[in-house]
Specification:
The complex is a heterodimer of chains A (522) and B (334). Chain A contains 18 helices and 22 strands. With 522 residues, chain A is an alpha/beta fold. In chain A, strand 11 and strand 12 form a beta hairpin. Chain A is globular, with a radius of gyration of 25 Å. The longest helix of chain B has 28 residues. By secondary structure, chain B is an all-alpha fold. Chain B has a single domain, classed as ABC transporter involved in vitamin B12 uptake, BtuC. Classes of the chains: A alpha/beta (522), B mainly alpha (334).
Chain lengths: 522, 334
């Protein structure tokens, strides 16, 4: 039994735990994913659920949310046995699940999204929607979550953080008493996170129970009352949040002491840097109206340069311009002293590589195999004229070696579709695909988003290895700690322009953040 | 999240293995054959089987070209119009009383080139609109179909003032008199398509574009070029089908193959090529073509009326699409 059960009973002696798991077991195709997990969640608490990808968090929450049924064990809600056959059963029991990939319809309005399954009808039952009740109900919910948009605003006009709040509004509309939030902050800016956390504390004050799944351990420690740590389908830690600290959480999650989160960069490089007057990549006054303005910077061979900034600052847009996916009105880009232009295939040929922000949409062919994805960029190298016949054994070798180099999960078969891999492994496939091209400049946009601690470390190592071999690496990230951990220099962008530059000695989390925030209006 | 598969008993596992297997459609063909054989008079004669084989060749060529386009998550509805236009162009070069090269020994080769070029050009037009103008494949090829079949009729009417053109050179008609020539052409073309898809760079690019054109673009795949290529190939295959049909029916006509359009897509879908792109093989399409041809021939020999045959074929294609969904679910579960 878990400690939090005892804690909860001491705190609220007459209330049943909002949710309790007893001996929950679940297997997929003979593989045990949950091996007898037991803990309780006290009513009116915010409980953090942490664990590496693959630890079983999503499965556990899918059981609670009615998407799956357990193979063994018992679930209880408010002390009553709870066994939903589908998400409707969960909704009826007052459980709402806000998924990481939001389930909103961008082409519909906020009001329509909120009441999609339960529109208020004229006179209670007639087949016409009561527009007035719809609007007032929506306004009420929007007030509760702190949004000021009109009820008819189309969801596609909302920013990620605002959509997140609408999702929570949906949960409130369904009169949920327990809300599960799965990685809600991965697409949010700092300000949007703060707003979310405020809302969560308000909801807790109203007596709702919140289960918060996240890799952002700092947020979890700050926000939650209790914590539950899963590893490999088992409960390895549970209790009040103040009994844990960051290092203890990490070592529980990973099962070993991680002496550091970021690899130490070797001073000696494998390939001596070319001492030349020209930097590897030079960006001069790149301007695209409405997107970026007068961007100038340089990147040296072997350097890891970070780009920080809030969402909407233009970082990803800059990366797309550098890679040739989007045009720019003026300015020039020089690679190894020569002008860089043309569409992506030409730039890839010159040595550019780009790991995009959204691996599902632009990084991977989800239904294609691991091998196909790994080989995609460099496929032409194995094609022999005249018919561009492919040398499959060569490709297999090369792919096999890269799999090992990125330490892809050995149990994954080459022919498996990439969609079956965890987020960390998927990202390794994308990275491996680009590493095979032996790029001169690698641009990474949010390379460790949605990835567990162990995989992050491995990706940082790969970045450093690449830089040690003489490449230049540009890392765009919303996690300032990450940039401080792996970069030598950090640029900050704000509203389409560069607002600050920090060398290693000047690294200071607050100053970097300050450079990213819009100037205060006095 | 993968949905958990229910624990299956042995029976269900075998069914799943059979349905999900690559050779499922081949099995269907054998089943259809076995089903028709005892009940259908004249089915299992060598004449009949040979005639099924020969008559399915144009469909095979069309369906192969269509498979290439389907793999890129596109569709080519204009193939029957390409046949008509190609047929008229070829006949205008080599046949009729006013054929441009009528009587000239170079007539046939020039005509063949002209027919293939017609297919390639229409395909290029389709591909360009889809890849560069970003228009949806359905609309582009549908309007192409209307435009080019109309053009074929217009060409015939204005040049020879007739709907069809006869008197094609005997060298050309050898393609139908010596059926094995036609078979050879079709087999070679199909084999080339198979090798293209399975062994070349362009083949891998076609699948990649079908899976995710955006990721392909970022990864350096020349998405526009690959798309145009797919439609040019489809046009070429349609032109080849035009050659066979024009030879067999011994006339150049804008109407050849008009009835084949649904069979083409049906055969590809039955074979297992996905309408959503990224998945398809020429071999599967071959099985699909054989199955549909067996079915049509058998029902015909049973003296069912044409529209009844159409109803049955339509139902079969619908079931094939449902089976495709079922097979996808199985593959996902494993």
């Amino acid at each position: 039994m878990s400690t939090s059960a005892t804690n909860n009973e001491q705190r609220t002696p007459n209330t049943e735990p909002a949710v309790s798991f007893a001996g929950i077991e679940k297997s997929f195709f003979g593989v045990k994913v949950l091996k007898g997990v037991s803990f309780s969640v006290g009513a009116g608490h915010i409980v953090g659920l942490v664990g590496e990808n693959g630890a079983g968090k999503s499965t556990l929450m899918n059981l609670l949310g009615g998407n799956l049924q357990p193979d063994g064990g018992e679930l209880r809600v408010n002390g009553q046995p709870y066994a939903p056959k589908n998400p409707n059963g969960a909704r009826a029991a007052g459980i709402a699940f806000v998924h990481q990939e939001l389930n909103l319809f961008p082409n519909l309005s906020i009001a329509e999204n909120l009441f999609l399954t339960d529109f208020p009808r004229v006179g209670g039952g007639a087949p016409w929607i009561d527009r007035r009740a719809l609007r007032s109900g929506t306004v009420d919910l929007l007030n509760q979550v702190g949004l000021t948009h009109s009820a008819d605003t189309l969801v596609e006009r909302l920013a990620a953080g605002e959509r997140q709040l609408v999702e929570i509004g949906k949960a409130l509309a369904a009169e949920a008493r327990v809300i599960i939030l799965d990685e809600p902050t991965t697409s949010l800016s700092v300000r949007e996170c703060e707003r979310l956390f405020e809302l969560m504390e308000q909801l807790r004050a109203r007596g709702l129970t919140l289960i918060y799944i996240s890799h952002a351990l700092g947020d979890v420690l700050r926000l939650c009352d209790d914590l539950v740590v899963l590893r490999d389908g088992e409960l390895v830690g549970a209790g009040a949040a103040k009994e844990f600290d960051h290092d203890r959480l990490v070592s529980l999650m990973v099962g070993r002491q991680l002496s550091q989160l970021y690899p130490v960069r070797k001073k000696e490089r494998l390939a001596p840097p070319v001492e030349s007057a020209n930097p590897l990549l030079e960006v001069r006054s790149i301007t695209q109206p409405g997107v970026v303005r007068d961007i100038s910077f340089s990147l040296a061979a072997g350097e890891v340069l970070g780009i920080s900034g809030l969402m909407g600052a233009g970082r990803s847009e800059l990366a797309r311009i550098l890679f040739g996916l989007d045009p720019h009105a003026s300015g020039e880009i020089l690679l190894e002293g020569k002008p860089l232009d043309g569409k992506p295939p030409r730039r890839i040929g010159r040595g550019l590589a780009f790991l995009t922000e959204d691996r599902r949409q632009e990084g991977l062919c989800m239904e294609a195999s691991i091998a196909d994805n790994l080989a995609l960029v460099t496929l032409a190298r194995h094609a022999h004229t005249p018919a561009r016949w492919l040398n499959f054994s060569e490709i297999k070798n090369v792919v096999g070696r890269m799999r090992e180099a990125v330490r892809l999960s050995p149990s994954a078969r080459d022919a498996q579709p990439v969609r079956t891999l965890s987020g960390g492994n998927q990202q390794k496939v994308v990275l491996g695909k680009w590493l095979l091209a032996e790029p001169r400049v690698l641009i990474l946009d949010e390379p460790t988003r949605g990835i567990d601690v162990g995989a992050k470390f491995e990706i940082y190592q790969l970045i450093h290895q690449l830089a040690d071999r003489g490449a230049g690496v540009l890392v765009i990230s919303s996690e300032i700690e990450e940039l401080i951990g792996i970069c030598e220099r950090i640029l900050v962008m704000r509203q389409g322009q560069i607002s600050g530059e920090f060398t290693r000695e000047q690294f200071d989390r607050e100053k970097i953040l300050a450079a990213a925030l819009p100037a205060s209006k006095t | 999240m993968t949905t958990a598969a229910p624990t299956t008993n042995h029976e269900q596992q075998t069914t799943n293995k059979v349905v999900g297997s690559e050779y499922f459609v081949l099995l269907l063909c054998l089943t259809a054959f076995a089903a028709f054989a005892p009940f259908t008079p004249g089915f299992v004669t060598s004449d009949n089987l040979w005639s099924i084989l020969i008559s399915c060749l144009p469909l095979l060529l069309l369906a192969t070209g269509q498979t290439i386009v389907l793999i890129t998550a596109g569709i080519d509805l204009s193939v029957t119009a390409i046949i008509g236009l190609s047929s008229i162009v070829g006949a205008l070069v080599m046949g009729g009383d006013q054929g441009w090269l009528r009587g000239n020994p170079a007539a046939m080769p020039v005509a063949l080139v002209a027919m293939l070029a017609t297919g390639a050009l229409v395909g290029f037009f389709n591909g360009a609109c889809i890849a560069w103008l970003r228009m949806p494949a359905f609309i582009v090829t549908l309007t192409s179909m209307m435009f080019f079949s109309g053009l074929a009729v217009w060409l015939a009417k204005t040049t020879v003032n007739a709907e069809s053109i006869y008197n094609l050179p005997t060298t050309f008609l050898a393609l139908s008199r010596h059926a094995w020539l036609a078979a050879l052409l079709a087999v070679l073309a199909t084999l080339t398509a198979h090798l293209l898809l399975s062994r070349t760079l362009v083949g891998r690019w076609l699948y990649s574009v079908g899976h995710n054109p955006r990721a392909s673009l970022v990864s350096g795949v020349p998405v526009s070029g690959v798309t145009v290529n797919a439609y040019v190939l489809s046009g070429l295959f349609a032109a080849m089908a035009a050659i066979l049909l024009t030879a067999r029916l011994e006339t150049g006509s804008p109407n050849h193959g008009k009835a084949l359009l649904l069979d083409v897509i049906g055969a590809a879908v039955i074979g297992g090529t996905s309408l959503f792109g990224g998945k398809g093989k020429v071999l599967w399409t071959v099985y699909g073509v054989i199955f549909l041809s067996l079915l049509g021939n058998g029902l015909n020999l049973l003296n069912l009326s044409d529209f009844l045959i159409t109803i049955i074929k339509g139902a079969v294609i619908l079931i094939a699409a449902l089976l495709d969904v079922w097979r996808n679910k199985l593959v996902r579960g494993s």
